[in-house]
Amino acid sequence: MEVSNSVDGHDKEEGKLRTKHKGKHDKPKPWDDESIDHWKIDKFDPSWNEGGMLEVSSFSTLFPQYREKYLQEAWPIVRGALKQFDISCELNLVEGSMTVSTTRKTRDPYIIVKARDLIKLLSRSVPAPQAIKILDDEMQCDIIKIGSLIRNKERFVKRRQHLLGPNSSTLKAIEILTGCYVLIQGNTVAAMGSFKGLKQVRRIVEDCIQNKLHPIYHIRTLMMRRELEKVPELANESWDRFLPKFKKKNVKQKKVKSKEKKPYTPFPPPQQPSKIDLQLESGEYFLTDSKKSEKKWLEKQEKQAEKTAENKRKRDEAFIPPKEPAKQDANKSGDDKNDVAAIAMSVKKKAKELKKQKAAENIDPESYIVAPEKRSSKKSRAS
């Protein structure tokens, strides 16, 4: 007990000496300076990794046959760009593949991932000068697979065309607003740019192919966002009230009527008569302007008269009395009498049958039994 008391007393003495106050460690630090950009990615310095790579890392990808000739021509440029980062590359025309791998001189551990992205972009028809830009630290890439988002081939081609627009105007607008390079080739969309821009491009592409929203609406939204960024007063406010809200409208498409195929004939159809031919045939061509105007006026009057007569007929339909049921004909009444007589005869027959049945039921069985014969007196006397 004495030890514990002594310990408690020691802690109390220390507690009095230690003064706790808020913000004790809030001291000015050298990196808390507004001039320093904490989001800046510093360029790799080989002195950070003097030992090099412990293992060899390699990536390979296949390319389509139509890219073989171009890659063969552009491969010296690709090899020269990768040689600066001590990455070896190989183009195999037999297998149709490209391979990149690290060497003993490689110092940057992430450059092999950038080299992998480079050969992916080259296989997706991105030009070599543009694809080499992916080796920069600030440049990223994204390959969006759009072929599996929709099954119908015709719809897929139509919606992919929406991304391009007339004379590739929609694609140019997307590139300007997102700050990315976009290439639509086959079943993929290759994009290069910042992370923010790539996110916007992926959303635009997927919404277009899945028929959620047309790219033009995304372009409008991005244009408004660009204008709102220029206003410093709205930097810390929500922009939802300024941005447009587009609702999807389901428009029913008209069913295309299938036309019946006419039998094939090698002769062309007869030429239809022109308007002048019809006027010559009817004699209207030779009429004067006054006669023509008079004829038109008479036709107009006839149409008006037909229309008024039709309207009058519709109005008078409400006052027409309903038709009364027709009286029964004499032939019909004769037929009815014959039917009654037939019914009476059938009833009489049934009555006779009933009487016969009852008579059969009331038969006395003794009347059918033969009685014993009485002997005659003459025979008895003879005996």
TrEMBL record:
Biased composition (Basic residues): 18-27, 250-260
Biased composition (Basic and acidic residues): 8-17, 303-339
Signal sequence extent: none
Domain KRR1 small subunit processome component first KH: 57-137
InterPro entries according to UniProt: KH_dom_type_1_sf, KRR1-like_KH1, KRR1-like_KH1_euk, KRR1-like_KH2, KRR1-like_KH2_euk, rRNA_assembly_KRR1
Domain KRR1 small subunit processome component second KH: 139-230
Pfam families for the chain: KH_KRR1_1st, KH_KRR1_2nd
Family label: Belongs to the KRR1 family.
Protein name: KRR1 small subunit processome component
